[in-house]
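Entry type: protein chain
Record version: 2
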Amino acid sequence: MATAKSGGDQRAGLLYGIGAYGIWGLVPLFWPLLKPAGAGEILAHRMVWSLVAVGLALLALRRWAWIRPLLRQPRTLGLLAVAAAVITVNWGLYIWSVNTGHVVEASLGYFINPLVTIAMGVLLLKERLRPAQWAAVGTGTAAVVVLTVGYGRPPWISLTLAFSFAVYGLVKKKANLGGLESLAAETAIQFLPALAFLLWLGAQGAATFGTAGAGHAALLAATGLVTAAPLVCFGAAAIRVPLSTLGLLQYLAPVSQFLLGVAYFHEAMPPERWAGFSLVWLALTVLTWDALRTSRRTRAEAPRRRAAPDRTGTPDTPETTATPRP
């Protein structure tokens, strides 16, 4: 019975994970629907309506107990303020990229994000890399050089998206707050500046909300659902499937975005860009292979570590590791 339940949980977790990354992969189709609103107005609506959506979710789940303790933790509040600022840059640039014909370059940002995260671990946290990880980071760096030649400039959209999301992940890990709760706190920080910007746009006669039809207003309000729904799915997946499985699923989003950029939006892909993307994919293949091999080795060695007696003659206690959140 326990095995069946576990199998059922894993299947449900896999579906939740596919749902989360599937939504993130198809979201480039959504942002162009919000025109004639500009990227700034769309971003502000996303912040405002995300707080509404997350607030309703917390109300339904009755998860309010974390708020009062959080208000007594200035360090955590400071980290969440940094996270809110960084994700604002990420969201705004991504919306602008999609609506100005840079879907492929935006997808590259999320392809190279794992490599940037590893590099930050070395530079900021003094982590030691395995040889395969060094090879992946080196290959990714070569890809950026090739793409710089191909674009005639550094791929700044990709690099900004990758670094901003890597910093966001690092800050969220240090804040150590649940996904839904963290998003609620971040959007609460974003809410007043976003609302003030929307009111200013309205006073200038430049707002499209309420002036471009009810359908357009409904789509702008739906930005909250588009933001919150995949996060809820991701949270449900994270507690049901192994981290290695989530690591593989994360590539669904940039792959979908890349395919949309090439096949649907018909963005140009000259040979030098194919070469750069191929190097990125090679680096990710090496990284994924190394992660899977290390995960299998760790699982194989776990029983031996538990059985091995320590100096007092009692079995070793397995170490507890924190599960990183993207």
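Comment: The CA atoms of residues 225 and 257 lie 19 Å apart.
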